[in-house]
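Obj.: predict assembly geometry.
Materials: sequence records (below).
Method: joint structure prediction, all chains together.
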Amino acid sequence: MDFDKEYFNLGFLDTLSYKDTVIHRLDPRTKVIATFALIITVVSFSKYEIARLIPFFLFPVVIFSLGDIPVWFILKKVLIVSVFAVFIGIFNPLFDTHVRVNLFGIPVSGGWVSFFSILLKFFLTMCSALLLISTTSFPGICHALQKLRIPEIFISQLLFLYRYIFVLIEETLRMVRARDLRSFGKKGKGMGVFINLIGTLFMRTIERADRIYHAMLSRGFSGTIHYVKRDRLRKADFVCLSVTGVVLTLFRAYDLVSFIGRQAERMF
Amino acid sequence: MSHHIIDFKDVVFQYPDGTEALKGVSFRITHGESVGIVGANGAGKSTLLLQMNGYMLPSSGLISIGDLELTKKTRQEIRKKVGVVFQNPDDQLFMPTVYDDVAFGPLNLGMSTERVTDRVNSALQTIGCLDLATKPPHHLSAGQKRAVSIATVLAMEPDILAMDEPSSNLDPKSRRDLIGLLKEFKHTKIIASHDLDFILEVCERCLVIKDGLIVADGPASDILTNQLLLEENNLELPLSLQKNRMQ
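Observations (raw structure tokens):
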């Protein structure tokens, strides 16, 4: 029943995005822009950077707490995808062996440093992307992208994807259930049946697409999808955007970690 | 008012694979009538409905909606007059939120934002779902989806409302609500259904269709009490009448 579980996970992420908190109430554009800015700032650091990335964890922490998002749920998701990041960085320690830092007397090679830098960057970017979708409804993100001048055709595709992925998954779920209930042991779960299942699903999808198109035509569709404009940027959005901007610049331009470190050294 | 009339004259329709779904259908529905279309599975009910707004054009014969004859050129106009509610709300609701979906038709008619907002709000108000406006369709129950599907069509203010199996998959309460809702509409209504009690309550007139032909046309109270006619068409007496008979 893995399939069921994944579906509920997706559904849960979607349900999260319809909560009502300070973060959820922000205009989607604000959140999209802020997330992009954060991601770009994080990846703009050099490949051996570790310490200066740490302050950026402020962002996910603030969003987790203000947006009332269950931390473990998101962390689990990040963990699952982290395999990719690990594979990207895993060979760095082998190729890049010259010692860059001495940590309490232990020499650490540049490869390990860059490997951890990749992991940190991955964690920060992935976390903020997931937080964006769990604090903003998908249609909201699409409208934001549309206002930011992303071509219409991509927006429509995304919107239809969002609308029908649930319908499609439910349809698959019913078919898989029907198969499971009438197959015993390994019989009935082989490749042949699976191929038939996919084929049927494909045919049904085509038929559905036809009916949807018909429904669109019936309501006067003639090539472009129009939307009613409704989101307004409010004061909170401007405040949020400027705070994000200032903090990001600060974190990018100044090495806060070593500044705090030096202050601490001087005090003791 | 002449423009609310539906006129079918010897309409024949053949599917591309050669199946003849309609074999010469003629009828006339006048302004404000509510007409039920009943018949066995595969008798041609849905095909008949799809003819009405020009999704499929008849192979031969003539369909006029009001003063307009249905052709490739006029079907855009006709779609403004005839609102079709499909059997499966998931096909009907294709936009990400209820609000966007209800606004889809009016926006395509080229209305201003204020007028669209008015239309959407009043349509949602009519079906009592104003609080669902921001929800995505997959968060709705089957009954809510059905109600919203009707709102999407109502928002276009069509003269004629055509519905395919509106009561399927509804729980008794939602079905009862829908009956109440439809009774209030002053539109011309055409309802294809197997739910004969539903037709009996909502419609004054009833057409029986069999193998692509109309075999009976008359007041719903006459046709739906004619046991012989109904049984010949894979139908039976409406349950409400069966109970009366037993007592």
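Conclusions so far: The longest helix of chain A spans residues 152-181.
To do: check interface contacts against the pulldown list.
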